[in-house]
Amino acid sequence: MIVRQKSRWLVLLAIAVAAMVAIAAGCGGDDDSSASGTSSSGSGGGTVTIVGYSVAREVYADVVSAFKATPEGAGVDFKESYAASGQQSRAVADGLDADYVAFSLEPDMTRLVDAGLVDKDWNSGPQKGFVSDSVVVLITRKGNPENITSWDDLTKDGVEVITPNPFTSGAAQWNIMAAYGAQIEQGKTEQQGLAYLDSLFKNVPVQPASGREALEVFEQGKGDVLLSYENEAIAAQKAGADIDYVIPDQTILIQNPVATVNTSENLATATAFETFALSPAGQKIFGDNGYRPTDPTVAKQFDYPTPKQLFTIDDLGGWSDVKTKFFDPDNGAVTKIFEGQGIATE
After folding, report:
1. Which residue ranges form the domains of the chain, and what is each CATH number?
2. Which residues on neighbouring strands pair with residue 130, listed in sequence order?
3. I need a labelling partner for 80 at 20 to 30 A (CA). Which of 2, 67, 90, 233 fits?
4. Of 47, 56, 90, whose CA–CA distance to 291 is shortest?
């Protein structure tokens, strides 16, 4: 946001306000208690503030760098805040400054549409507003000492499973719907699918606030298997983490939405950045970082394996129904499972 400075007092006030906003960006939101903000500096051209989900931090470092090398991005400054997806979405809805938002799942974008901050046609383009895809995988210790190969292995006695809290983390909701949907794909009933979730969470000793925090907990030695994004597993391996991962026979297609905030004071540049992220050049960067590009032409350049039974959130009723049926804070199926096991939902 550009502040017109009319006096030394206003300059000092602007500095103080900027500091408070930076603190809010690093700590605000409800999905990631380990949020962090970074900034990239240019020579002019306005500022674009990215508010994104925690796992996307690294890929956006590369996307920002590449965009700044284009004519549209020359001299553009960036401010960036990453935390759990639901946390970030609620923070923007509550007034956190943002020009471009990148979330884990569609309901976090819908919240901003309902708040009038994102246009209703945000998903009208050829990629439907999704900048990247992924799948839920099972991350294990190097060598897979527990021989984790399927969803059934996660409910065995003595197996500790790490997954984030679904009431703060978008990644956790993808994990849960992957686990539930896998049961349905195997021919089980809805009741059997819920019974599986109940058994699964009896093996979950801790639920970090975000997908990134869950990986950090796992890397510190907690748990036998981590439910996570495929791209997070690939990135961790590239960074030298002592892990392996398994794509289960049945898993869900993860779709990550992006949009510009229509109240942005630098909307043209934010839109240009979104266009770049969805372009072949931007999509190549996502592919290089372990994400499955949503541009079908770019996707062909990468050799990502096709799961035997890949299903989508629409196969389970769509996010609107899923959010109510599974994650309603009062009557959702997951809420009831947590209450039955004495697990906090806040």
Report:
1. 133-253+305-341 (3.40.190.10)
2. 257
3. 233
4. 56
